[in-house]
């Protein structure tokens, strides 16, 4: 006869029911569960040993549970037999003591069915896209994101049906018409642009692009124009010898001695032919070009504005094709060194004024400013962290007077020299862009 079910609610037996619940949740048939390994208290082991000693054909000697790596090995079928409980009743006992058995097996079956269904759907609407499909499958299928994944697949399928476009159109318009959001396929971490690039690469059977410029060039092959006007690169004193509109704009800017912004559209729709034999200084920060303008600097100078975007890559590639020699100079910090490494590796452009000798010269030049006098007495904590460029491990920025002088040549009228250097010469008048000639 089955024991009083109140015995089963003993807290010392709870680990046993939890272990059995786990097996049942995985879909195991109660009659097939031979043993479970459980971390039981001494009282829990004693109760189960007492049950087993009453099993039919049990000897009169006390039953000792087998232990493996600190866990008690419970012979489940023998225990049920001793309790006069059928395997069919096991689930009820478990749920009465610790709650419903989670339907993990059914959830796993549904997940498998969902996964197989969505990939079968993908193969139907996105045929011939092995790299895109592999990337989508690598992300897996998560229940609470199925709708998002289905939206992505549908948007890509709509794009696939339109390629190649009958005439060029912007990425924003394509995103709006195929996904309902002009930013859906943005080429950044927040957008799905990387999936769109994979789709186009598969459609064209083309190698995967490895730079932002190469991504946009790939999309342009099927009529998708991305960021062609919003991205610009800043140039000063750069000359061109072609007959296109971009060449003419560069020559006019040079004649007027003014900087010029070129867009990705300028460089791809009307690529200029730069004068062979020019020597360009490529810098990280726009303030350097502004300073060059004020100092009357006549050497060609180009600015990447702190990062390498598609327009920068396109310009550097065109310059290499035209036989332009270049040097890169950026901040002496992690970001500047990363750009220097990238332009050296891809375009064989060496760096300038970024080595340890430059950094040491800058640090040895002394502080950027003199202390305010008289200096009020401040707590020590208020002055901590005020280390300037003389501190160990600090970055050196291009705006430092020593760096600017090494890049652009010294300027006797510089109003922001280092303390103790030449006093600035004040001109009689100034123009908005720089000194009067």
Largest sheet: 5 strands, mixed
Integer-rounded radius of gyration:
37 Å
Number of helices: 18
Order of helices and strands: HEHEEHHHHHEHHHEEHEHEHEHEHHHH
Helical content, roughly?
40-55%
Sheet with the most strands: spatial strand order: 7-6-9-8-10
Low-confidence stretches: 380-387, 429-437
Quaternary structure annotation: single chain
- Strand segment count: 10
Amount of beta strand? 5-15%
Structural class per helix/strand content?
alpha/beta
Shape: elongated
Report, as a whole number of angstroms, the end-to-end distance.
112 Å
Overall average residue pLDDT: 87
Characteristic terms for this protein:
437 residues, alpha/beta, five-stranded mixed beta sheet, 10 strands, elongated
Summarize the model shown:
The protein is of the alpha/beta class and 437 residues long. The protein has 18 helices and 10 strands. It starts with 13 loop residues before the first helix and ends in a 29-residue tail after the last helix.
Written overview of the protein:
The protein is α/β, with parallel strands linked by helices. 45% of the residues lie in helices and 9% in strands. The protein contains 18 helices and ten strands. It has helices at residues 14-25, 42-53, 76-82, 87-98, 104-125, 130-138, 146-162, 171-179, 193-204, 212-220, 245-256, 264-269, 286-294, 310-321, 334-347, 356-364, 380-383, 401-408; strands at residues 35-38, 66-68, 71-75, 169-170, 224-225, 232-236, 260-263, 279-283, 301-303, 325-329. Strands 7-6-9-8-10 form a five-stranded mixed sheet, with helices on both faces. The chain has a three-stranded antiparallel sheet with strand order 1-3-2. The chain has a two-stranded parallel sheet with strand order 4-5. Strand 2 and strand 3 form a beta hairpin. Helix 1 (14-25) crosses helix 4, helix 6 runs antiparallel to helix 9 and helix 10 packs across helix 14. The longest helix has 22 residues, at 104-125. It starts with 13 loop residues before the first helix and ends in a 29-residue tail after the last helix. Mean pLDDT is 87; it is low at 380-387 and 429-437.
């Amino acid at each position: 006869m089955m024991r009083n079910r109140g015995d089963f609610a003993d807290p010392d037996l709870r680990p046993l029911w939890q272990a059995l619940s786990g097996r049942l949740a995985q879909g195991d048939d109660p009659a097939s569960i031979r043993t479970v390994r459980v971390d039981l208290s001494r009282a829990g082991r004693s109760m189960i040993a007492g049950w087993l000693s009453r099993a039919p054909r049990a000897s009169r000697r006390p039953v000792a549970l087998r232990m493996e790596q600190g866990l008690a090995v419970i012979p489940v079928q023998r225990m049920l037999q001793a309790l006069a409980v059928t395997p069919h009743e096991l689930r009820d006992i478990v749920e009465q003591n610790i709650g419903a058995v989670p339907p993990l097996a059914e959830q796993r079956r549904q997940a498998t069915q969902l996964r197989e269904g969505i990939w079968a759907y993908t193969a139907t609407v996105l045929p011939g896209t092995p790299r895109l499909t592999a990337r989508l499958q690598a992300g897996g299928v998560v229940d609470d994101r199925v709708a998002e994944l289905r939206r992505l697949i549908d948007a890509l399928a709509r794009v696939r049906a339109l390629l190649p476009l009958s005439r060029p159109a912007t990425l924003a318009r394509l995103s709006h018409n195929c996904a309902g959001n002009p930013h859906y396929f943005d080429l950044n971490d927040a957008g799905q642009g990387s999936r769109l690039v994979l789709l186009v690469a598969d459609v064209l059977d083309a190698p995967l692009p490895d730079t932002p410029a190469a991504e946009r060039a790939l999309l342009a092959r099927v009529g998708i124009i991305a960021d062609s006007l919003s991205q610009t690169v800043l140039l000063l004193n750069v000359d061109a010898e072609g007959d296109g509109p971009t060449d003419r704009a560069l020559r006019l800017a040079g004649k007027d001695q003014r900087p010029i912004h070129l867009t990705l559209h300028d460089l791809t729709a009307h690529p200029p032919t730069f004068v062979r034999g020019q020597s360009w200084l490529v810098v990280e920060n726009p303030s350097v070009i502004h300073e060059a303008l004020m100092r009357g600097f006549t050497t060609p100078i180009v600015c990447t504005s702190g990062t390498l975007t598609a327009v920068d890559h396109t310009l550097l590639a065109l310059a290499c094709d035209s036989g332009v020699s270049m040097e890169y100079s950026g901040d002496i910090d992690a970001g500047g060194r990363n750009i220097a490494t990238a332009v050296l590796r891809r375009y064989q452009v060496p760096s300038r004024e970024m080595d340890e000798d430059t950094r040491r010269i800058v640090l040895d030049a002394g502080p950027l400013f003199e202390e305010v006098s008289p200096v009020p007495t401040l707590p020590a904590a208020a002055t901590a962290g005020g280390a300037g460029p003389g501190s160990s491990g600090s970055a050196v920025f291009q705006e430092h007077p020593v760096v600017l002088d090494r890049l652009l040549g010294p300027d006797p009228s510089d109003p922001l020299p280092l303390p103790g250097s030449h006093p600035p010469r004040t001109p009689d008048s100034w123009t908005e862009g720089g000194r009067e000639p």
